[in-house]
Design goal:
aminotransferase, binds pyridoxal-5'-phosphate, alpha/beta, seven-stranded mixed sheet, Aspartate Aminotransferase, domain 2, Aspartate Aminotransferase, domain 1, 376 residues, three-stranded antiparallel sheet
Length: 376
């Protein structure tokens, strides 16, 4: 069986992980959070991205919350988010007492549709929060234009897209702020929870830096300037990520290579109701390789019978989640998000797949399509 969530994700780095645990545990400073390794990790990312500030924090989810808090988002405010994606897109907004307004997605790229988002703007809209999806970055140039035209803040949920580049500009640097997640399945995942905020606005950077540690300024201990969170960064993870950063580009290139092969194999399958993500490399992130399949559940069973594990990301559009349905206006529909929830199926794309495994995944998908009568 080719697993979807490989059990040997950090096998190559096992020694490294043991080393950094030992190093941090025996360091005379005995600092386990927000120490000099965290600061060095932030500086490395900042230099690489040309950002004004990078602030490491407890998770991608709290990274979104910290930015929304720094933007003073609260009751009475609306934040436009995609109708399809992960729960933090809605629950971070609701957690601050604001309202997520769900915009439908593009049927092919699966990212928030800029025209759909524009149609939902009201006098209460404060923030646009597009998210990069499985393998395609959101239309950030259009989002920037909308944010500027209507005087909105732009928060780029780039949790899945670290290392991706659109028109020469890295994911995370398009908005007033962007976020990354280091949870294990993400492109720069590690063995635990972690996230980061990227911003070109030094003032916003200073504010989130305070907010991540209970609103303290980092100079005076126990002086709290703002109501903050506990969303701090772990020194073991910082040490681990510092040493793995140089290999990130190679791992992303391998994901891109696998994805390009899949897309080439699957492009002829449209007649059989299987559609790969759009080809190309500009604005692509290979976090997850997701197909749209009209007979998704049958395809999933077929793959399992042929030794290929797959995964359904987001079987429900966000406005149909029990926790968020109260924010979905009566009668409003999100047809593309609803279709993606019915049809999307993710197949293995992690960098240590062998060429033979990649080929057998593709063969299994193609064999399913060959069995199927044309659907149209
Ligand atoms: C994973 C993810 C998050 C949250 O990151 P965590 O580190 O898991 O909290 C936010 N947004 C998107 C789009 C994600 O995929």
């Amino acid at each position: 069986m080719i697993p979807f969530f490989p059990p040997d994700l950090f096998e190559e780095d096992r020694e490294l992980l043991l080393d950094v645990v030992h190093e941090v545990a025996t360091d005379p400073t005995q600092k386990f959070i927000l120490g000099e390794r965290t600061a060095r990790f932030e500086d490395l990312l900042k230099a690489e991205l040309g950002a004004a500030d990078v602030v490491a924090c407890g998770s991608g989810t709290t990274a979104l919350t910290l930015v929304l808090m720094a933007m003073d988002i609260g009751p009475g405010d609306e934040v436009v988010v995609p109708a399809y994606g992960c729960a933090p897109l809605a629950n971070t907004v609701l957690g601050l007492g604001a309202v997520p307004v769900f915009a439908d997605i593009d049927p092919v790229t699966l990212v928030m549709d800029p025209d759909g988002a524009e149609a939902l703007l009201t006098g209460r809209t404060r923030v646009l929060m597009p998210a990069h999806m499985f393998s395609v970055m959101a239309d950030m140039p259009r989002m920037r234009v909308l944010a500027d035209r209507y005087g909105l803040r732009l928060l780029e949920d780039s949790a899945v897209a670290q290392g991706a580049v659109l028109d020469g500009r890295p994911a995370g640097t398009w908005g007033d702020a962007g976020v990354y997640s280091f949870v294990q399945v993400k492109s720069f995942g590690g063995p635990g929870e972690g996230g980061a905020i990227v911003t070109r606005n030094p003032e916003l950077g200073r504010t989130v830096r305070m907010l991540r540690n209970h609103g303290q300024d980092g100079v005076h201990r126990f002086r709290h300037h703002r109501i903050g969170l506990n969303s701090r960064f772990d020194e073991v993870l910082a040490a681990f990520q510092i040493r793995r950063l140089p290999g990130l580009a190679r791992r992303i290139a391998r994901r891109a290579e696998i994805a390009a092969y899949y897309t080439e194999r699957f492009t002829p399958l449209a007649e059989q109701g299987v559609t790969p993500p759009p080809p190309g490399t500009n604005g692509r992130c290979y976090y997850v390789y997701s197909l749209l399949a009209e007979r998704r559940d049958e395809l999933k069973r077929h793959l399992a019978a042929h030794g290929v594990d797959s995964h359904v990301y987001y079987p429900l559009a966000l406005p149909h989640q029990p926790a968020f349905a109260h924010c979905a206006p009566e009668g409003r529909r999100w047809p593309n998000a609803e279709r993606a929830a019915r049809q999307s199926l993710a197949i293995p794309v992690y960098p240590h797949l062998t060429d033979a495994q990649v080929e057998s995944v593709a063969d299994a998908v193609c064999a399913f399509a060959a069995l199927a009568a044309p659907v149209r």
